[in-house]
Amino acid sequence: MKYYLIAGEASGDLHASNLMKALKNEDTEADFRFFGGDLMSAVGGTRVKHYRELAYMGFIPVLMHLPTILANMRLCKRDIVEWQPDVVILIDYPGFNLDIAKFLRANTRIPVYYYISPKIWAWKEYRIKNIKRDVDALFSILPFEVDFFEKKHHYPIHYVGNPCVDAVATFQATYAESKEEFIARHNLQAEKPIIALLAGSRRQEIKDNLPQMLEAASPFTTTHQLVLAGAPGIEPDYYARYTGNHPVKIVFGETYPLLTHSRAALVTSGTATLETALFRVPQVVCYYVAMGRAVSFLRRHLLKVRYISLVNLVAGRGVVKELVAHLMTVDNVRAELADLIRDTPERAIMLNGYDECLRILGPSGASRQAARLMVQKLKEKTM
Fold this sequence. Notes:
Helix content: 40-55%
CATH class of the largest domain: Alpha Beta
Largest sheet: 7 strands, parallel
Shape: globular
Oligomer: single chain
Low-confidence stretches: 291-302
Strand content: 15-25%
């Protein structure tokens, strides 16, 4: 069968690539065409556009690149219609993907599956109308979404487990490099524990968060070393604008090895918060935005949830500290980090909370389960 997938950022590229591998196991004749990244390309098929040409964040960047965004939407719609896939699989990225789903429902008979559902439980809950109308099947990776979609909105979904659990489990099963080998390979300091910095995958996130992360962590560099996880598609020169004279090393394409050997981490909210938890690395969630107090006010009145990090959302309580908007200051980040790099009660409590999250998420196998259900539904449709 022919599968058209759309992923708009690095995490979507990762999870879509794992889904593609699982689909190939379920359907030996699987043929892929996609908007995505390098990981999806490595699985096979035809990439129409790289997600780097799609990923614009924030009102001003989106407005500035609106002609490009609209042109990409037109290209995607035209390309799907011309290729006539058996199914279109959308991966997160709701601003783009929900528009594609609406077009397909109105103009074609191609079924639309959504893998990693839009986070409408946090905000823009009105989008449930679009999902009910335009999406044939939704495959959820967060257990609390079942109650939201099925009980609150009477829209049946499939909880398949979380692909981050799969990705981390697969990595840990094959990764054999010792800490000493990792340190030697990256010319790090053998005697100093690592503080990992995960400053986001988009340029705006890096610009907003990395300088304060570095300043907050700088007093600890006498006893620890800072290692920054370079995001896919972000060149070293861009990081150099913000690292300045700070003693920080950058490693690209090795976030999982870095987390394996880290003592603690500063993490910009997103999938990375959950991945950091699965590696059992104590973390401070940092997310700076301009006009922080105004944003905090809007957050309290517009967001439907108490937390922004996936760790806390899965646990249903504050396992990790979230320093968001006006709460993200150098002093706040520094104080929280100080409690996590030592063997403190705060560190032990956080690690216990991580174990609770893992129990709630369930075992690995999300990609396999999603692929099995998708192929089964498509076969039933053709019978």
